Amino acid sequence: MEMESIYAKQSSTKAEVSSGSLGVCGWFLVILSSLLTFTLFPLTIWFCIKIVQEYERAVIFRLGRITDRKAKGPGIFFVLPCTDSFVKVDLRTVSFDIPPQEILTKDSVTVCVDGVVYFRVSDPISSVANVSNSNYSTRLLAQTTLRNVLGTKNLAELLSDREGISHSMQASLAEATDPWGIMVERVEIKDVKLPQQLQRAMAAEAEASREARAKVIAAEGEMNASRALKEASLVISESPSGLQLRYLQTLTTIAAEKNSTIIFPLPMDVISHFMRK
Questions:
Q1: By the 8 A CB rule, do 115 and 188 touch?
Q2: In 38-64, which positions are buried (b, 16+ CB within 10 angstroms) versus exposed (e)?
Q3: Per-residue CA distances from 187 to 94, 141, 257 (Å)
Q4: CA 56, 60, 64, 69 torsion: positive or negative?
Q5: Which backbone phi and psi does 18 adopt, to 5 degrees?
Q6: Which of 39, 72, 134, 142 could cross-link 77 (Cys pair, CB 3.0–4.6 Å)?
């Protein structure tokens, strides 16, 4: 909901740039340029007609003032050769890598983090009139925002909650770049590099945890096996013939293994007399 409100604010709050009054001298220059253009029409048409692509918009300046609150394009538009100038703005999504940043986390661990940011120009006029270089400014702001956001997180949150950190960075960047006519579409944390000592310590901790789990599982297996053996002994003790069948099964298993020594169990009727005593 927070990101939707920011994007709604970006779409509804546009830079209101007023063309203002050109003054008497300004209008005189505009009229003079128009007359000169019509006089030399076959030649000046090549200087008047401009074309922008589908993914571009043109912000036109007339004597230093923006002529319209809406950028021109795509397609053909006209400018006066002497008084008008224009700036092309690319509306396509731009992606750039945030260089690796040395960051001190909340629990005093130094990590090296890098990321990637996707953004585009949502308001061409604001991106030209309100900031000198919107792309470069957004890159610098992304680096600063990455350090500021990660400085409030501990190491466990940094490793486990990358999605939450990305959304927090996106919200901060979207709010800061709104006056520049920039919409931040996506922010991703690419890699988190830990110090070598910390990596070894975490690996040792994980190995110890796995060994402890393995011992617990082995102990549970031993306990279950002992319970099963106890139940089996109770069943066999109730039926002497069952014990003799178990002897025969063991004999069959030993014979199948091609051993040189074979043990023959005594018949139950021979040892029953001793068992009663």
A1: yes
A2: eeeeeebeeeeebebeeebbbbbbbbe
A3: 12, 13, 65
A4: negative
A5: -95, 135
A6: 72
For 56-88, write each residue's pLDDT tens digit: 999 988 888 888 778 888 888 888 887 888 899
189-228 pLDDT, tens digit per residue, is 888 888 777 667 667 777 777 888 888 888 888 888 888 8
- Domain 94-198 classification at class level: alpha beta
Rounded to whole angstroms, how far apart are CA atoms 121 and 179?
11
Q: So where are the chain's domains?
A: 2-90, 94-198, 217-276
The first and second tokens of residue 240, run together, are 């002497």
Cβ atoms of 143 and 98 within 8 Å: the answer is yes
CB atoms within 10 A of CB 251: 14
Ordered alpha helix ranges (H), the chain: 2-12, 23-39, 41-48, 124-129, 134-150, 155-160, 162-177, 196-238, 240-256, 268-276
Instruction: Report the alpha-carbon distance of residue 10 to residue 70 in Å, rounded.
Output: 16
Contact yes or no for 112/170 (Cβ under 8 A): no
Determine the length of the chain: 277
Phi and psi torsions of 84, nearest 5°: -105, 145
175's tokens: 């709010």
Look at residues 126, 174, 120, 181 and name the one whose alpha carbon lies nearest to residue 16: 126
* Contact present, 48 and 76 (Cβ < 8 Å): no
